[in-house]
Amino acid sequence: MQPESLEAPTNRPIYSPVIVNNKSAHHLFICEGYPSREFQIFYSSVDDSKKTLLLVSESDSTIDHDSILVTHSELTAKLTQLLGEMPLSTTIYVLGSEAFIWDVHSVATQAGMVAEQIKMFAPVSGQRRLFCTHCYHITEDVTHSPAVCSGCQRNLLVRDHFSRLHAAYVGVQIDAEDPDDLPLPQELI
Amino acid sequence: MRISPKPVQSFRDDFTYTNSREAISRFPFPFVEDEYRYSVNIEPHAMSGPDGSVFEKFLDIDEHYLSEMAERAIVLKENPARCLSMKHMDLACWDMIERVMSALSADYPEHFSLTKQGDNWHWHNKLLDIQEDFVFGDSSTLPMSPLEYIGRQVQGDFAILDQRNADLFMDAGIVTCPADWSLAFDAGMSFSEWHGPVPMAREEGIFERALKYLTAIQVGRPVRRLNWTLTINARMDTSPETYPSWGNERTSVTPENVAEKVHLRVEVQVLDRMPRSNALMFSIRTYLISLEDLVTNPQWAKRMHRAMKTLPAPLVEYKGLTRFHPMVVEYLSQFDPVN
């Protein structure tokens, strides 16, 4: 018998509630897709002269705010440029999918920011990026386990093992030992 | 007495790997008590260790040297990404060159020699017939990256851990015989991140204590610990990368072949502070022994039975033993007088 308190092994990031860092000289808000109402209220709470809004979207939707709009592929260059121009004590607030917010984290730390300057809202969806340990391909927007690898087509078990660098969970072939033993996909939470 | 390297044997396909009687007698048997449990089992890797033991020298070069180097070359040819180094780790990799070349030439002068004139070094590896003139610290004077160059000449996997913010980061490594972990995926992870999949230990506070201990390691005071699992066939490369090609071997164990197929896989893990970079060199040296060879030592056979019998279910699962663990316990029970 194992103790009931035994938790499944995981290193999933934990997202604490985000509050405005009043000591910052500037506040950079980054949002993937259209900002949620909650995010808009949060954004409104900061003095206009000390904030910038960066929206990342593939569609050219009109935005009410005085914001900068880029596509995902333009994000790295734009964010690096903005951070180069902003005060050293800037704080980032980022909302989006889990892969997105950790991509932002990587770009920001590359640009010299420390983890404490990057405030992450809890991911807006349960979708995960998956890293295949067999062919190293990335499969985006995974919602179920097992999931099919977009690179080698193997059936991958999605493990709760997260890499901040890859902004991805690890996938390992689930039916390698017995090809007849393939469980039905279950939704990831 | 040390063992001379013998001709190349294989860790794949026909699995010609064998242990001599001497290699069996010096096998680093990991179980120190009858009931298996987790512990921070770290101890000084003090030199010289007991004569002839795998702990006698800082790096153990044994009869499998040529076989393991041949196996590493195969793996790197199949997948060059099994050796990775982030840009800021160059100095640490040169630290490793110095540490390994100095230790091997001092401990095994019949096989390795190192001569220095300032930064102009000459290295001679007589076992692999390699001679190199290079400038210490200048990576352009080696035929490949410093980490790959030295990694191809020393047994065991190596991870180079960068130390910053009171934490350790997996920022470089050459890993061709891992027990089911991927350097490519774990690259850049902190200590607690790469241990994410390990069950039970988190609740027991093991990682916090281990990290405190490891970040405090001083230059010249290496430490070691043993880790173990069971491997089917004498397969060195039990990586997640290649798991689709060997996973089915776990279903090949029968009561008739269990003693021959199942191998106890022991890692002697050594952590050593690098003087220039302040990185930790983490060497993971793997030893394999079939149950058949292991039970030639009656004490080991008895203790192995008890350790396997009391192994907690989450560990059976985590170590990938589920399919054949009962057969191992059953086989070993014949050597335990309690049964």
TrEMBL record, chain A:
InterPro entries: DmmA-like_C, DmmA-like_N. GO terms for molecular function: 2 iron, 2 sulfur cluster binding; metal ion binding; oxidoreductase activity. Transmembrane segments: none annotated. Coiled coil: none annotated. Pfam families: DmmA-like_C, DmmA-like_N. Keywords: 2Fe-2S, Flavoprotein, Iron, Iron-sulfur, Metal-binding, Oxidoreductase. Residues 129-172 form the Dimethylamine monooxygenase subunit DmmA-like C-terminal domain. Residues 35-118 form the Dimethylamine monooxygenase subunit DmmA-like N-terminal domain. This is Uncharacterized protein. It comes from Neptunomonas qingdaonensis.
Automatic annotation (TrEMBL), chain B:
It comes from the Bacteria. It holds the Pfam family HODM_asu-like. This is DUF3445 domain-containing protein. It comes from Neptunomonas qingdaonensis.
